[in-house]
Amino acid sequence: MIDTILTKVKGFMLNPVETFQQSKNDDPGAVFTYFGLLLLLHAVLAALVSLLRIEVMPPYAGMFGGPAIPVMVFFVALVGGCIITVIFAAWLHLWVYILGGRKGIMQTVNAVIYGHTPRLLLGWIPFIGFIFMLWYLALGIVGIRELQEMSTGKAILAVAIAVIIPLIVFILLAAWFFISYMTVNGIPVPPTNAIN
Predict the structure, then answer these.
(1) 82 lies in a domain?
(2) Which structural domain, as residue segments, surrounds residue 83?
(3) What is the tens place of the pLDDT at every residue in 125-149?
(4) Is residue 189 assigned to a domain?
(5) What span, in angstroms and rounded, lies between the C-alpha atoms of 19 and 89?
(6) Separation of alpha carbons 195 and 192, rounded Å
(7) 171, part of any domain
(8) Model pLDDT for residues 52-73, shown as the tens digit of each residue
(9) Helix (H, G, I), strand (E, B), or coil: what is residue 126?
(10) How far apart are CA 70 and CA 80, in angstroms?
């Protein structure tokens, strides 16, 4: 089983088109086992990085949670990763279906899960982790194209819509909360020490 997972990891990192084509008939149990093991590895590595931050930069130890931060990071990465992946796969499948993908939701789930490979393996690295998020999106497009048998343009459009709409909603909510906070609390003004 480990050999199969390592072969898939290598395939999705180095030869994704062929690996997606070979994964069309993967058993859901194998797909979720693959995802679970990579997500667990990602959660452990993210927790270790947060622990190193506390050790290297003691001010992090004084933050809310202090020494418990690595444990919180582990559980947020693990549980949040599962929930967000399931929700995003369903949301993406809506757009895939609208744009003509008719191979079933499980193929979209496979594309999302297998596309996560670079992000789960290397996304925990500080400062450059966002690069692997972009790689994940590119692999997701390839996965949708291959597993749903859609054109590249439609696969790009489905992924773009599925990412951009929640991003716009998040930005609008953040702006609304910021404006609400500033309206209620006002803009802080430093005290003046004028000498008369």
Answers:
(1) yes
(2) 2-184
(3) 888 888 999 999 999 999 999 999 9
(4) no
(5) 19
(6) 9
(7) yes
(8) 876 655 555 555 556 678 889 9
(9) coil
(10) 15
